[in-house]
Design brief:
The protein is of the alpha/beta class. It contains five helices and seven strands; from the N terminus they run ααβαβαββαβββ. Strands 3-2-1-4-5-7-6 form a seven-stranded mixed beta sheet. The termini are far apart.
Length: about 180
């Protein structure tokens, strides 16, 4: 019995280790492709985002690079529907599995693919935690597809040619 338990624990540890290494390798590949590595949004920033969504009267948020789904799970409710795009297969599958056990899962849509293939037309709030090398291309997509009055929140990095409304901590706020 103890041997079986030991083998099971070792297998779980090995799986988590392999998943971690795989995620880190994907993050390195993403950097070279000018897409962002996985960096989760801090809890304090989550509170600020929620406050701003209430002020803006947001009804739908799209997270461009949703990672482990932290933003989606924290924000989704019967008032705000959330959509996430993630191009890391491991993070996509992790967030899809997490969605299944969440009470608010019916208000969340998680899609596998590039943020540059995301449909921005039906969302009144866009969130991105990008890197400098991708902000210009993302800005072009937002300006082309987002409807007027859309709130855009960028964590840490600025869009090169958008006029910032204000910033709170590491969060930058724009209006299309």
């Amino acid at each position: 019995m103890n041997i079986i338990l030991l083998i099971l624990l070792y297998s779980c540890f090995l799986f988590v280790l392999i998943a971690f290494v795989f995620t880190q390798l994907i993050s390195l590949i993403n950097i070279f492709n000018h897409t962002a590595p996985f960096v989760p949004t801090k809890n304090g920033e989550m509170s600020l985002i929620k406050e701003e969504l209430v002020k803006h009267g947001s009804r739908s948020l799209i997270d461009l690079g949703s990672g482990n789904g932290k933003i989606l799970f924290s924000i989704a409710s019967n008032i705000i529907y959330t959509t996430g795009y993630e191009n890391s297969l491991f993070l996509y599958l992790f967030s899809k599995m997490s969605k299944m056990v969440r009470k608010n899962g019916r208000y969340i849509d998680i899609k596998f693919g590039s943020l540059f293939n995301a449909d921005l037309h039906n969302h009144d709030t866009i969130y991105i935690y990008g890197i400098p090398g991708m902000m210009q291309r993302t800005q072009t997509k937002i300006m082309k597809e987002a409807k007027e009055g859309t709130l855009v929140i960028s964590n840490t990095f600025d869009f090169p040619n958008l006029e910032k409304l204000y910033e709170r901590g590491n969060l930058n706020f724009y209006l299309v």
